[in-house]
Amino acid sequence: MTLSIRTVGLSALALAILGGLAVTAFRSDPIPVDLATLERGALSVTVDAEGQTRIRDRYDVAAPIAGTLRRAPVAVGDLVAKDVTVVAQVDPATSGLLDARSRAEAEAALHEAEAAVQYARAEVTRTEAEAAHAQAQYDRARALAERGAGALTALEDAEQRRAIARAATQSAKARLQMAVAGLERARAVLSQPDAGDAAASCCLTLTAPADGVVVEIADRSARPVVAGAPILTIGDPADLEIVVDLLSSEATRLAPGAPARVERWGGATPLSAELRLIEPAARTVVSALGIEEQRVDAVLDITSPPEARAGLGDGFAVFVRIEEWRTEDALLIPLAAVFRRGGAWFTFVVEDGVVQERGIEIGRRDGRFAVVEAGLAAGDAVILHPPDTIEPGVAVTPRARR
User: The YknX-like C-terminal permuted SH3-like domain covers which part of the protein (predicted)?
Assistant: First the structure.
């Protein structure tokens, strides 16, 4: 059967219309995505931790003796001058009252000491008499020897007896002194504290060991203290340092002299600081999750001038970022644009509106960016936070910014 030209034309037109409708039906629109263009810039990798300020040099004043500490003559915040300002006064402790048994023992000891003194005095009298007799015998023997009427041996014997008598006298006098001291000690045990004498006697006065400000007082009220009891602390609030508690694994990556940034201290602008030292010994700390951790203190000096940190005092909380590594010129990629698969790093690159998956190598990174070591170049466009619908060959378009 022969088809007319009109029929063939109408059929072709219908097929063309159906094909166009099919293409229109199955064609997908470009997916809107967030893009970032790679640029070169500076990157700083830091160790971040919370810390606390403290006065660099603290001078603790303690009670040198046991006694009663008088009410503090100074208050927290008072300026003090070295060796001038009186910061504490301590009354020496008085002896306690004796019970009946102790008093009886003390009275017996007193009678014993008195008898010992009497005996020692009698011994002194006896030895002095013997020494005088020995001296007289010596004088007689010497006179006879000088006239030739006495033997030389008799003079030597008399001289020896005189020396022995003199030594006995000195020994007796020493025992008398010991007995007198024992008597005084026995009397002291029985003596009772006299309130009038205690009030008249001067207390032990303590002056400031250094120039500064009183930063802490253990207790302003009068109280009994033992030797070594803390009384107050003096320091210079303008001379502050920062102590940061770090994991030992983090501390090993830092070196003294590393710059730091102090944030959240209460001021409008961050402060500058410098890592001075990392303490040589770590300690074991149990975390809130029950995990044992090795932690160590890092000490930083605040390099910002005092006028830039007005109001910052001792024991204030701060947040510190200590610089571990820094570069001024590196190709940077946002961490939101990279993902890991099979131990390798990848990113989605957009070229001419079409997605391509590309393997890359990255190096140092902070919380936002990473250094690109291979696989990308400056000016490349990468997708941030790629959704699950993104795959190689998909058409995309930049998302409109609001």
Answer: 331-397
Q: Using CA atoms, how far apart are residues 320 and 303, in angstroms rounded to an integer? A: 13
CA atoms within 13 A on the CB side of 313: 7
User: Residue 244 phi/psi, 5° resolution?
Assistant: -120, 135
| Parts of the chain with a pLDDT under 70 | 1-28, 95-97, 150, 192-202, 401-402
Q: How far apart are CA 39 and CA 211, in angstroms?
A: 54
| 224-237 pLDDT per residue, tens | 999 999 999 999 98
Using one digit for the tens of pLDDT, what is the confidence trace for 154-179?
Answer: 778 888 888 998 999 999 999 999 99
User: Is residue 244 within 8 Å of 50, Cβ to Cβ?
Assistant: yes
pLDDT of residue 28: 62
CA atoms 274, 275, 277, 282: torsion sign: positive
pLDDT score of 6: 61
Contact present, 323 and 364 (Cβ < 8 Å): no
Helices 152-190 and 100-147 pack at an angle, to 10 degrees, of 160
What is the H or E stretch that residue 370 is in? strand 369-374
Rounded CA-CA distance 216/54 in Å is 13
3-class state of residue 396 by DSSP = strand
Whether the CB-CB separation of 5 and 327 falls below 8 Å is answered with no
The position carrying tokens 């600081």 is 273
91-120 burial string, b = 16+ CB within 10 Å, else e? beeeeeeeeeeeeeebeebbeebeebbeeb
Q: Which residues have a Cβ under 8 Å from the Cβ of 208 and sit 6 or more positions away? A: 59, 61, 80, 81, 82, 83, 84, 85, 87, 234
Both tokens of 315, joined, read: 């024991």
Which tokens sit at 110?
């007193």
- Which H or E run contains 49? strand 39-55
